[in-house]
Amino acid sequence: MLRGLVTQQGQARRYEARLLRAGNPALWTLLTVGRTLGPITRLPRLGWVVTDPVISRRILNDPSFSMVGEGGVGDLWGQLFGAEFASFFSGARHAELRSLARDMFTEDSARQLVDRVQGPHHARLRARLAAGEVVDLAAVVRVTSAYTVADLLGVAVADDDAALALFASAERLAALALGTQASTALAPEVIAKAGGLVDAITGDVERAYRSGGPDTLLGRCRDLDLGLDLAKGLTTLLVIAGTETGASSLTRTVALLHDTGQQHRLLADPELTGNAVREGLRVTTPAPVIGRHIARDTEVAGRMLRRDGRVMMLTYVADNKAGPFDVTRAYVPDTRQLWFGAGRHLCLGAAVARVQLTRLLETLTADGRPWQVVSRVPARRVLVPTYESLRLRTVAG
Ligand code: HEM
């Protein structure tokens, strides 16, 4: 029995490892090395690397470490949308933007959003599985993630093909950031390629900016008089932030429940759904690395981090220190919810991500039948490791 459980955990780990390596080999190497490092280490070329959850949170809560400047993701956005857009990532403008949208991201709003936008898709998924169909869950969640973010923004997505196209443009745009581990400076040809993808993502923004109501993010951008260009930047940011990470957590959690055999515990006790959601997010940590620019000399855990350097929090390594996927694991206080970051930039869509994973698991377990993974293909060369396809069906229990 114990041997069987250990083998299932080993199998689940191998599938996850394959997924990470296929998505981004350099990231995979960094995370593998990271597992052997101490809590905070300085590496040649890369700068400071942190693998400890408490130290990671300490840095993410400290304004001496910035998203803007070499090493921070704001640096990438500044190169695409200009210095004014980069200013959204820090200080008063950042706080102003977050408060613009706060009420749209509460637990209640997230529940309403997910039930309204994703509910019909979940009902269809349940019916297809009940009819014995093999369903590609990766395709389903690409569609639901894209519709959800489009709804928040107020941009129109005509049909499922358009939703898939939106997701694909976001995935390709994010993939342009592959290889920015050593430097966040983008080559001119990368910036040109990004321009085409931004156009594809923001095709409906002008209409939505001019006519969107106050219940849409773009309508609120207009009321703040942000201007069309900055609104396009924010749209691109939200589409990137809200689609791939969510989709990755959805398919990988369902695969983990299958591979570890723990779907049977969940089927037997639906009260474990909250734990399964938290464990899925912890073990998959879809944003596996968070980078920051060091804006001023700061001592952290006895080490002096010098101004203008960079620091990478290997959140995937930090989150996984608590152990393998386990639906009976209690909340881990050291980790908290580091998979959503921490501090000023804590994921705005955290409630949406949690609710959509909850609803998906409720859908899969509703008929009390376990699922079987028929085939799987990891996505290649993507910023967020994920399944390109995860085909499953439900079977008699
Ligand atoms: C499982 C799914 C998700 C994960 C793991 C995740 C993870 C993260 C992380 C780690 C950050 C902080 C990045 C940093 O500090 O550099 C972040 C920020 C953000 N996320 Fe998420 N995210 C998820 C889903 C979503 C969704 C569904 C949305 C929107 C609908 C969203 C919107 C955002 C936004 C707007 C930010 C920027 C917040 C700021 O800078 O103030 N995320 N996310």
TrEMBL record:
<keyword id="KW-0479">Metal-binding</keyword>
<keyword id="KW-0503">Monooxygenase</keyword>
<dbReference type="InterPro" id="IPR001128">
    <property type="entry name" value="Cyt_P450"/>
</dbReference>
<keyword id="KW-0560">Oxidoreductase</keyword>
<dbReference type="Pfam" id="PF00067">
    <property type="entry name" value="p450"/>
</dbReference>
<keyword id="KW-0349">Heme</keyword>
<comment type="similarity">
    <text>Belongs to the cytochrome P450 family.</text>
</comment>
<dbReference type="InterPro" id="IPR017972">
    <property type="entry name" value="Cyt_P450_CS"/>
</dbReference>
<protein>
    <submittedName>
        <fullName>Cytochrome P450</fullName>
    </submittedName>
</protein>
<dbReference type="GO" id="GO:0005506">
    <property type="term" value="F:iron ion binding"/>
</dbReference>
<dbReference type="GO" id="GO:0020037">
    <property type="term" value="F:heme binding"/>
</dbReference>
<dbReference type="InterPro" id="IPR036396">
    <property type="entry name" value="Cyt_P450_sf"/>
</dbReference>
<dbReference type="GO" id="GO:0004497">
    <property type="term" value="F:monooxygenase activity"/>
</dbReference>
<dbReference type="InterPro" id="IPR002397">
    <property type="entry name" value="Cyt_P450_B"/>
</dbReference>
<dbReference type="GO" id="GO:0016705">
    <property type="term" value="F:oxidoreductase activity, acting on paired donors, with incorporation or reduction of molecular oxygen"/>
</dbReference>
<keyword id="KW-0408">Iron</keyword>
